[in-house]
């Protein structure tokens, strides 16, 4: 074999391994670990998120099983004036929402507050505890002939957690795709004066003025105990994915969400293509028992996951743009060929449309709900194995500004399409979902398009990623030129700098916060920074722009020793990227 052939085989090996990581999927799986770990029973603890992005200390954790125990837990921290944060079963938020601050704080986990409280099928109302997983709520509703109309696509979130961050699906129809729009009541436990036992349950009905503060709150108001949701009769959906040229993408983005109730889009910039999701309700008599078991949310053999990550790192460190684009094309084409995990009967995909009941279509996450198999397989991002490790920038642009934003992104792409092969997740490119305007104080003030960009992250702090300037310029362009709002449960620090000033009713939210928790026990340094109470989320130091902790203003914020310097953006000249 010649040296040229050897080099070619070496460049193709990572491509093959990345494709293999998608194809090898298992039915079993080790569920994600508890995000809270303690060395002495429930004391001397740490908390992380499901990806292992951070590790925060805490003095202790408590796992209430009833509302009475929850009240007692809040009363205990309030009487001692200790900082406290709420943790969910899997802790999916990327920012440090669950970190109480310092080593003396307490964590209250809702993992055992996971039951259905009541169902009123006639009124189509369902009350659940806040720690119930989305997947369990969906199935419990379906058993009563009911549907949660919209939800995020990942079923491993808890109801309390997804409300705290404003998590959503995709729709401009009716009340829209955000779960908090279907909340018609909740019970929240907050600190109280000694004369009231240090904790109180506040019950908020559909017309209570504080409901708009509590249904998206980033966890700074107290602990939600129960949530009542307005549901709909169980219905069916028909799903078809259509791949088209992106030449009219800017025009389509403004109209696609009006044409289809559950519409979304995947932009594959390096291919010049858009995958449009044509997704609508159909009559329940329509034949079909389709299932959404999204490939990216399935279990992977641990060895395959490790090999795929090693291949990704090799492409990052030593690959060429040609090799990276080959890998990107293979992964995107594999997902398309396998219908992204959709099947017509729960087993095989025979063609579009895929028709199925709402509870089988709206969300998935089988890697989180399978029996333990000794870590032979796991979710691809499980922190116990050296597997997938990615950042996620998520922000929303007002729909009225979305066409111009897309034109700017395409201008950036047209300068050198190949850089997008490493700059964004090659499997799904840039994801777009629709969100309707909300009355929630920390919700969207107008109809918007939510953009998700997933991209490679190094395990080594301060290590640059290839073509990082692409995502950084898009992010700064969205946030500063187009006034984008960050997703509360995603993003690096820079996305939250000054964000609170973009919410017209931020002052009303902070007034409720002061009434519910005047001592700021449920607040942290991070939440004070992003809410504009005290300080800034920016961390100015060497390599801070590489980590997304600052926008560079000097070369040392990048990695000049590795050839990364602070420079203006190529399309948005006011951006500063490495």
UniProtKB/TrEMBL annotation:
FAD-binding PCMH-type domain span: 54-234
Catalysed conversion reaction: L-gulono-1,4-lactone + O2 = L-ascorbate + H2O2 + H(+)
Annotated metabolic or biological route of this protein: Cofactor biosynthesis; L-ascorbate biosynthesis
Molecular functions (GO terms): D-arabinono-1,4-lactone oxidase activity; FAD binding; L-gulonolactone oxidase activity
Keywords: Ascorbate biosynthesis, Oxidoreductase, Signal
NCBIfam families: pln_FAD_oxido (TIGR01677)
Protein name according to UniProt: L-gulonolactone oxidase
Annotated source species: Triticum urartu (Red wild einkorn)
């Amino acid at each position: 074999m010649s040296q040229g052939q050897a080099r070619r085989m070496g460049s193709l090996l990572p491509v093959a391994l990345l494709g293999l990581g998608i194809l090898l999927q298992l039915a079993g799986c080790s569920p994600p670990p508890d995000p809270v770990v303690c060395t002495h029973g429930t004391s001397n603890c740490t908390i992380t998120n499901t990806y292992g992005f951070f590790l925060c200390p805490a003095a202790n954790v408590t796992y209430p099983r009833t509302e009475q125990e929850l009240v007692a837990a809040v009363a205990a921290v309030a009487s001692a004036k200790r900082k406290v944060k709420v943790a969910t079963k899997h802790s999916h938020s990327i920012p440090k929402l669950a970190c109480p601050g310092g080593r003396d704080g307490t964590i209250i986990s809702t993992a055992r507050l996971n039951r259905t409280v009541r169902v009123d099928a006639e009124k189509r109302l369902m009350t659940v505890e806040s720690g119930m997983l989305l997947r369990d709520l969906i199935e419990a509703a379906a058993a009563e002939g009911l549907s949660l109309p919209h939800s995020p696509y990942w079923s491993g979130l808890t109801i309390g957690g997804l409300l705290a961050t404003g998590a959503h699906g995709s729709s401009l129809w009716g009340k829209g795709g955000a779960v908090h729009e279907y909340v018609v009541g909740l019970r929240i436990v907050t600190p109280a004066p000694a004369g009231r036992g240090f904790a109180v349950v506040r019950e908020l009905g559909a017309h209570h003025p504080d409901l708009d503060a509590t249904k998206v709150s980033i966890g700074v108001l107290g602990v939600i105990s129960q949530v009542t949701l307005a549901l709909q009769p169980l219905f069916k959906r028909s799903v078809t994915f259509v791949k088209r040229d992106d030449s009219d993408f800017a025009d389509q983005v403004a109209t696609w969400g009006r044409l289809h109730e559950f519409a979304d889009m995947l932009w594959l910039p390096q291919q010049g293509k858009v995958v449009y999701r044509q997704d609508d309700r159909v009559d329940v008599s329509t034949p079909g028992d389709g299932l959404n078991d999204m490939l990216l949310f399935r279990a992977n053999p641990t060895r395959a996951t490790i090999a795929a990550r090693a291949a990704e790192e090799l492409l990052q460190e030593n690959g060429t743009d040609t090799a990276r684009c080959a890998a990107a094309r293979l992964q995107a084409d594999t997902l398309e060929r396998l219908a992204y995990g959709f099947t017509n009967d729960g087993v095989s995909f025979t063609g579009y449309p895929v028709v199925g009941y709402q509870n089988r279509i709206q969300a998935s996450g089988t890697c989180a709900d399978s029996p333990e198999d000794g870590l032979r397989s796991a979710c691809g991002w499980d922190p116990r194995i050296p597997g997938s490790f990615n950042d996620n920038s998520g922000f929303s642009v007002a729909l009225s500004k979305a066409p111009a934003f897309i034109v700017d992104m395409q201008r950036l792409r047209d300068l050198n399409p190949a850089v997008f092969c490493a700059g964004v997740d090659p499997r799904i490119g840039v994801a777009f979902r629709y969100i309707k305007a909300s009355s929630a104080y920390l919700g969207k003030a107008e109809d918007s398009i939510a953009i998700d960009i997933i991209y490679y992250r190094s395990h080594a702090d301060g290590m640059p990623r290839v073509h990082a300037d692409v995502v950084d310029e898009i992010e700064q362009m969205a946030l500063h030129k187009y006034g984008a709002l960050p997703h509360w449960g995603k993003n690096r620090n820079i996305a939250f700098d000054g964000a609170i000033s973009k919410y017209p009713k931020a002052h009303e939210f902070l007034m409720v916060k002061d009434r519910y928790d005047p001592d700021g026990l449920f607040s942290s340094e991070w939440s004070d920074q992003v809410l504009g109470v005290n300080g800034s989320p920016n961390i100015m130091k060497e390599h801070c722009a590489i980590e997304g902790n600052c926008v560079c203003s000097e070369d040392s914020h990048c990695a000049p020793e590795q050839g990364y310097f602070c420079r203006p953006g190529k399309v948005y000249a006011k951006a500063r990227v490495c």
